Amino acid sequence: MQYYVNCTPRHMREKENINIDVPTSDVEDFLYYVRLLADERNISSRRAFGELVRGVYQSLMEKEYDRQDRKSRQRGRHNC
Q1: Would you write out the chain's pLDDT as a tens digit for each of its 80 residues?
Q2: Could you give phi then psi for residue 5, rounded to 5 degrees?
Q3: What's 61-78 look like in SS3?
Q4: Are 48 and 37 in contact (CB under 8 A)?
Q5: What's the first-to-final CA gap in the chain, in angstroms?
Q6: CA atoms of 41 and 52, how far apart (whole Å)
Q7: Dihedral sign (CA 5, 38, 53, 24)
């Protein structure tokens, strides 16, 4: 199932499309979190969708960097 969400502001003339593949089993959960975020923050579902995607990206990037830094520190100890 495909959902189309326009995250660009209305006044923008140039737009790009991005396809995000979400497994069928996770679509309802993902949209639940979008609706929950929109209700709690009192924002539109469109904005909540964009913020959720950005938040997930930032969270995953921080997690990856923490792991890489930990491995780098461990390697440094063995080289002494």
Answers
A1: 566 666 677 787 887 777 777 788 888 888 899 999 999 999 988 889 888 888 887 887 776 555 556 666 666 655 54
A2: -125, 125
A3: HHHHHHHHHHHHHHHHHH
A4: yes
A5: 54
A6: 12
A7: negative
